[in-house]
Amino acid sequence: MKTKYIISALALGASTCILTAQGGNPPRDGQGPPPRADGSNETGNARGGDRQRPAETITEKQKEQVKTILSKYQANTLTADQAKAIHEAFRQAGMRGGPVMNDAIQAAGFDPEKLRDLAPPRPEGEPKPGAENGPGPQEPGVGGPQAGGREPQGQGQYSIEQAVSDRAQLTTIAFDGLAFLTGDFGCNTFLPPGKVADFCGFQYMRDVDTNQLGHNTSFVPRAANNVLSILTEKQKAQLVALALEQEKMLTGFVRMRFPLIKAFCRQLEGDIPKSSAGLNREAVRKYTAKIYEIDGLLSYRRAEVLGGIVRTFTDKQKEALAKMAFNNSATWPELPDQVDKKSLSHTAHVAVMTYASEMFSWYAGNVEADVYFCPERHATYFGSFYMKDIPAMGNANYSISTSLTGDSGEAFLATLTEQQRQLVTGLVDRQRADLAEIVTTRRAIATELRRFMKEAVVNKDHVLALSRRYGELDGEISYFYATAFAQVAKTLTAEQKKTLLKLRNLDAKFTCSGAYLYSRAIDMPEVPNTDFLFAAVTAN
Q: Fewer CB within a 10 Å sphere, N or C end of the chain?
């Protein structure tokens, strides 16, 4: 039962998506979105001293973690972004610099001096990303510290660093495992539309809403209709045109997920091609790189159009938007629909509402809000979104539980044997370096896209290259999950399976009979042959 007590402590702060925000009061209310990860303020002045971290010993387990983190990179081709991701992974693992740490890095075949030269680690005394409230973009004469010069605190102490923390990731991974082991292919295809091209800070705005509507089904339409009411007919027409333009690509993105999900299900069921040893890690990475290239194309074009509209905002429109508090949906009046949904397909209408709501979070936020994500943002192929969100579908003003992920993840781990648990808990270490690089990659993409608010042309090739890399990282994490969950499944007893089905806790009416195009039910699709995602057995 020792593990159960540990997991109870971990789950305390690990609720659905809300674990991951920090201090989110917006510029309109005197506090900006999270400060930049480099510790600088809006004028670029660095905070913190130049003290070196004190040396300390590291455990044998940490030495192995160093090897695991570095094993994902090539020492002779290391880039600055990769070095930064390595430092972040070390930091997340609780490892600090010093002679012993240098020895461990050298033992793994890397030069610690080169790592420092490429990307100096953050000095002690400099704030962690999102650890303090920094100024965001403010309207003249609005915002700034409250009485006494102290910035007001937001809804909880949340940050991107907390999103990738061990406790948040463990309960999220466990929730994925529960969903995957008790669901099916159709459930695994369910994906909220907001998890695509998500570089506009909307998730942050959702998570820090002091009006507690962030996870209510009314949140998106409420934000969107307020923004649409402020736009001119010409500006609204641009959003509609973008939705019609991207409709085919949005559908293609979802359908391209199907073969990967099918392959993961085959791994789980033991339906592995003859002459194969199971899923091929590199094949999965290459495939998810292609999926995320579509995400990059969607993101680039979305930012191009939204940025163009932002550049044409009049003073009157800016004044109207300033009345909408970033972190308080109570300041957004409930308005009737501003776009005729009957004139658009379901996919296009959802896209228009998404664009409008995200335009506000992007305009009112900053790059750190854009980088931010909830712990379950990645490896979205295992059915956890279905298990959590399906009761909300079609229910107006329905609030999704914010404790479900943590509670169910804890119960899942408690059901497993110690050996089975280790397969799941070990994923936290296996994904650490990838997750750290994901943060770095997201920041690079978000920074580039934000330039559209002031410029008409942004480097598209750079955004797409970063997006492909993002996909490789997500694919590797997903491969780790799929193979570990399949190993757990092989050893489950009949009693354990029965317990896990109870933990799923979904009414029979939510049995999946087809698949999903985002969150809309569709007939079971015909999935192409997925043998290419499996590894061939090599001859001895």
A: C
